[in-house]
Amino acid sequence: xxxxxxxxxxxxxxxxxxxxxxxxxxxxxxxxxxxxxxxxxxxxxxxxxxxxxxxxxxxxxxxxxxxxxxxxxxxxxxxxxxxxxxxxxxxxxxxxxxxxxxxxxxxxxxxxxxxxxxxxxxxxxxxxxxxxxxxxxxxxxxxxxxxxxxxxxxxxxxxxxxxxxxxxxxxxxxxxxxxxxxxxxxxxxxxxxxxxxxxxxxxxxxxxxxxxxxxxxxxxxxxxxxxxxxxxxxxxxxxxxxxxxxxxxxxxxxxxxxxxxxxxxxxxxxxxxxxxxxxxxxxxxxxxxxxxxxxxxxxxxxxx
Length: 304
Ligand code: NCD
Prior knowledge:
- The chain is an alpha/beta fold.
- The chain has helices at 12-27, 51-62, 84-94, 107-114, 130-144, 162-171, 191-201, 211-214, 234-240, 282-300, and strands at 40-45, 66-70, 97-102, 119-124, 151-155, 178-182, 204-208, 220-223, 259-261.
- N-carbamoyl-L-aspartate binds at residues 51-52, 123, 129, 132, 162-163, 225, 263-265.
- Pathway: Pyrimidine metabolism; UMP biosynthesis via de novo pathway; (S)-dihydroorotate from bicarbonate: step 2/3.
């Protein structure tokens, strides 16, 4: 029995397998339509979500399985004071696999240590978001055809943006990757992500506040939302929220084969005019997420 708490819980070979499986599902969904018959996915989301929860649930339905959903902490026994450990034990009695989002860093790990079913971290506070990284990897693979020799710009809230932390951890395992970290001083990448992942990989990275200056070098531009819910005061959020707004004008010096990604939801950081640009991949990225979650469910339930 395996849980996925961190993207590094999967080996590079397993990531390749998942990408190949997701691509096969995309080609022939019918082949997989009954694979999880009789199985149940529980989704337990103690923070807001649209894409992650619904794509997990859609993934399970597409595999012929069923879904049990705890929509919020307020509507579950967490409101009565039940611990994550106990809730995870309980859900193990009713479901075959659990996808869990929690505002506390490490909560899905605690759940995994106490559950008797696979637990998937669907986002823990400002820490990690491995299944978004699976969606991101499939997007990069389908749109760029490779994981190697890419200059990846990550822009926005690199401090609290958990999708950025997991994506960097994953991309550090491929050769020829360069990171361009674009953030205001207050929202720079936490030093632990640099010391745990970037520095040991030996990959080049630069930190800048200037998106336009670095635009021409980028193969991938990963925009992020300023994570309002993680700020300690509203004043700081209001000051920083519109630090970067991507517009068609700013994309003029960009490569023709750039891909523009965003885990979504978007607030102001990408103007809607950019949606028409063929390089905009963020809506496709959300669709790719469903296929990767199908591949992951099959793997964790050991269904072939
Ligand atoms: C992200 C998240 O929850 O971290 N959303 C998602 O799962 N696609 C990004 C965000 O909320 O900004």
